[in-house]
Each structure stands twice: as structure tokens, then as C-alpha cells.
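Researcher: I'm preparing a figure for a lab meeting and need a structural model of a single chain. I don't have an experimental structure, so a prediction will have to do for now. The sequence is pasted below. Please return the structure as C-alpha cells so I can convert it later.
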Amino acid sequence: MATTTKIRPRALVRASGGPRYAVALAVDALGTGLLRPFLLLYGVTVLRLSAPATGIAMTVGVVVGLVCMPAVGRWLDRGARSTVVAASMLVRVVGVALLLATPAGHVWPFATAALFLGIGNQAWPAAHAALVATVAHGRERDTALAAGRALRNAGLGVGALLATACLAGGTMALQVLAAVTGLAYLTAAALAWSVHLHAQPAARPTQGSGAEPAPRLRALLAANVVYAFCLNVPEIALPLVLVTQLHASPVWSAAIFVANTVLVVTLQVPVTLLMSRVSRRIVLALAGVVLTASYLGFLAATSLGHGWAAPAVAVVSVLCTVGEILYAGSATALVTVLAPAHVLGRSLARFQLSTGFGLAVSPAVITALAPHGPAALWGSLAAATLLSAGAVASEEDGRHHGGEGDIGAGESGLPTVSRVGSVAVHDPCAAYRTTAPDAVRP
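Model: Understood. Here is the structure written out cell by cell.
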């Protein structure tokens, strides 16, 4: 089957929701990068809370924020698209406002602010994926999702760099950063809402109509909890190992994090395009194998001599990032393909629940395993990830056509007509498609 392997920026922007929506994503990511990495620092230095209390409040905010996902899924299944994206950004505006209004020494207002920030952060990925799934189809959808992730990582990185440069200003600088973050979220919400994209709700199939049932995807969702750990490896696991076990300079941790961001920004779209020749399920399983190999590589690297361990960890981290790129480029796309139209929102919400849960528990798991030595940490992660890759590869899709679709709207019954502003858009990414796939690949 022929596939598109060239990056066409203008058509890719259209397939991702249009120029205004792309700007909204960039502004939102920039604002998130300004505050999210320093939220703990804000609680400790500005609000004078203890580090454990601040950390617990942030964790509770993330976990409780997951409770909103079923409601988000039902909202999406009623056809809402840009409205849900804008709402996820506006919720974070409320969180920032509460943060700025929190008096020093009061943990509950801070926890409430963290909750609203958590709700927005959890709701956004599913809403964004549903929006892209409405305006792009087939492999163009995969590329558009990959482009959105690359753009978001770029915005997060730039925001974090700007915030780091401003930290010399002390507590006042953190408060200013929080205020700027709120304004960025508000601007992004206005831009996203202005897209006015709404999908016609898909009719729920009646009993006996011969319609395909919604796939349960239990193995995929369970495996995704483990896969999501890779997203916290550069931020949590590697700094912990490098600084506390290898006694290496913190510069190594910073360099690995920057390299991870740069690689994701530059390679996410090209790698996703390259892997479009292969089934999404196979790519996701391959991502698990690559991540497993990287975890075993970290285990080997930490056993080297004191002068070689840190550079070896840095080299292996590139392999880990490749696994992350493969995972991010295939997992959400696979869900959008396998989910029937009438439960697309709820399927994406369930997927985000598994991702959010994995991200929430991974810091506790990593910090609990690390004191028991490299074998306990990296060996456990490698074994769990390899088992997850096997589960992904062997799970039945439960679709009559036998696998995922690479075709257009017919692949999951998604609507081909949506409304952007006052103009009906028919397959807006047609300019990006150079060849029409003629087969369904398992």
C-alpha cells in the first residue's frame, strides 16, 4: 500500500485543525511550560507550604482530575470538539486564578487550584485527539496527532526555558509567571473556541443491526499504563539514578531532558510518517520492545565505572526517546481507528484514564524501586514493558474487518463533514493525501 512520506506543512496544519487552532496549541503549551515544571516550587517558596504537603496536593489534583474523563467522553460523543478543547483550557484559567488568590500557608486552596489544573491537563489530550480525528482521516490523522505532540513539546520547552531565566527574580517572578500562564490559557481557549468545529453525533447502532460492537481494548488500556512510564523516565527516573546513585553532575540530567525534548520535536512527525507503512498495532508493540531494550541498556550503563556510567546513560536515553516517539505516534492513533464513531469520545477518555493513571503512579513506583538497586528498577520496568508489548501484539481488535483501518471516514464511521465557522469542510486534509490507501491493514 502506498503511503504519504513527505511533510507538507500547510496541508498538515489544515489536517491538524487549521492555523488558529495550531496557534492555540502553541500558546497553551507555552503557558503550561511557564508554570507546570515549577508548580511545586511555587507551593514551597511563594505559599510557604511544606514540600510533602505540596507534593501530595499536586498528586491528588492529578488523580482526582481523572474523575472528569467519563463526562468528557460523553460530551465528545455528543459532537462537541473545539468547545471541549477550549473548556479544558478555561478550567486551567480557573486553576491559575485560584493559585494566585491562595494565601500563604493555606494548603487547601492550593490543592483546589491543583485540582482544576489537573482537570484541564487530563481533559485536553482526549479533546484534542477527537478534534483531529474529525478533520483528518487515515494516516493523515496519525501525522496530525504527531505534529500536535511535536508542537506541544516545543512550546513546553520554550516556556520552561523562559521560566528558568526568570527564576532569578524570586517569589515575585513565580507569581508573574503564574499570571502570564493564566493569560496564555485564556488566549488559547479563545483561539480554540473560535475554530467552531462540531461533529454530527454518530447514531448509536441498534440491536440486531449487524453493527460492530465497541472493542473493549482491555489489553491495550492495561498495557498503556505501563507504556506511560516512559514519559516520566527522563524527568524522574534518570535524574534520580544519576544524582543519587551515580553521584553525577545535575548537568547530565538537564542535558538528557533537553535532548529528549529536541528529539521529540524534530523526529515525532518524520518517524510517524516513516512507520505509516506498518500496522499501528505492530508499531506500538515495537515501541514496547525498544523501551525494554533501553531499560536493559540503563541497567548495563549503571554497572559501568564511575566515569563512564553517566555518558552511557545519556547515550541509552536516545534509544528510550525513540521508543517514546514510536509509542506516542501509534497509541492514540490506534484508539481513534478501533473505536466506533458513537463511542469515540468515551474510548479516548478511557485511554486518557490509563495514561493519566500511569503518569500518576509512576513517580511513586520509580522512587520505591530505585533504592533497591538498578536491577530492581530497570529489570522490573523492562519485564513489565515487554509483557505489555506482547499483550498489545496479541490482542484481538474485535472488528469484523480484522484490524485497523487505513482508509478515510469509513475506518471507524467518523463523519467526513464537519463545520468550521460557517463553512462545511469535506475531508479538509485531501490536499495532504497524495495516494488513497486501497486496503485495510491489521
